[in-house]
Amino acid sequence: MPITSVEKNLDDLTITIVADFAAPLRRLWDAYADPRQIERFWGPPTYPATFLRHDVAVGGRSVYRMTGPTGDEHYGCWEWTGVNAPHSFEVVDWFADATGAPNTDLPGTHVTFAFEPTDSGSRLTTTSRFDSLEQLEQLLAMQMLEGTKEAMSQIDAVLADLAAFASDQAVEAQILSDTQVRVARVIRGSVDQVWRAHNDADLMKQWLLGPDGWTMPVCEIAANVGDSYRYVWEPVGGGEGFGFTGELLESEPPYRAVTTEAMIGLDAPATLNELTLTAVEGGTLLSLMITYANAEQRDAILATGMTGGMETSYARLEGLLGAGVRA
Question: Which one, of 87, 38, 84, lies nearest residue 63 by Cα?
């Protein structure tokens, strides 16, 4: 158990939990910054969490779902109010509904996560601040402390799993539900570089090509919210191509963009694509949450070899960045 102390201060209306780990500071920070990792310990073992959104940026949001042993689902969300990577971040932690909207009928908790190095590894101090004694007592009665202790007992195993989250791992697709898939890869480059690589048409034409043997003659970027984009690929030497179009719904440079995506000429529902970029050790974690109309559409698209084409493209982008292409 990594927790070394728990202090309740009824005068300051705070609960402070201190936990020590053998892992380096940056490794501990990344476990909280990476949605693939934090969901392995945020919920107690009997109520594992799935993070549907995770913005490590001021003004960002996180949304998670906790699923019980009988299939019951409970949602929570964070509103990010402060980030000083890799030393601290602050959020307001709310209960939420299935859309991720805060449930204001229940209290929100102001939480500060402070990370510091130690002689043996790193320390995390989590301070939860409440607006009233009644609020504090209400959450204690809901077994907040017991759930937190159970959840944090899982962190050591995540920190020890270096291979699963190494920067040399290929694109992975994780099925989160019948309609949602998260695609993730660490790209060796800064967040600003990876963001520009997705918003500079000349650069995109050099790397967003999928398998060898394709060109991208049309790359019309959606620069502003409400704009449409259009991408078309053709085989080298001519032949039948394909393309996608959609609308830019949200843009928070350089860490988040939300678009719709539909194949040109195909009568099928558009997907919703939520792109998040997070700085981690070794580069930038690209996380793409894709929402499909149904499980059939999800499975049909995954069966096309989508992740293989994405891996080839991201490896090509890393090659460009390594060769000194300005991005």
Answer: 38
- Give a yes or no: residue 102 inside a domain: yes
Of the residues 138, 161, 184, the one at which a domain ends: 161
Is the Cα torsion angle 20, 67, 169, 262 positive or negative in sign?
Answer: negative
Q: Contact, 49 vs 64, CB < 8 A?
A: yes
pLDDT of 82 > 80? The answer is yes
Distance, CA of 264 to chain centre: 28
Does 120 have pLDDT greater than 80? yes
Task: Give buried/exposed letters for 191-223 (b at 16+ CB in 10 A, else e).
Answer: bebbbbbbbeeebbebbbbbeeebebebbebbe
Specify whether 195 is located in the same domain as 152. Answer: no
Q: Is the dihedral of CA 170, 175, 179, 182 positive or negative?
A: negative
The full DSSP string for 279-290 is EETTEEEEEEEE
Position 91, amino acid: V
Backbone angles phi, psi at 48, to 5 degrees: -60, 150
Residue type, 220: E
Which of 140, 161, 182 terminates a domain? The answer is 161
Asked whether residue 228 is domain-assigned, the answer is yes
Q: For 20-29, what is each residue's pLDDT tens digit?
A: 999 999 999 9
> What are the beta bridge partners of residue 73?
67
Show Cβ contacts of residue 21 under 8 Å, excluding neighbours closer than 6 positions.
2, 28, 121, 122, 123, 124, 155, 156, 159
At position 38, the amino acid (one-letter code) is I
Structural domain count, the chain: 2
CA atoms within 13 A on the CB side of 232: 11
What was the pLDDT predicted at 298? 96
CB-neighbour burial class of residue 181 (10 A; exposed 0-12, middle 13-18, buried 19+): buried
pLDDT computed for residue 1 by the predictor: 55
Do 176 and 92 lie in one domain? The reply is no
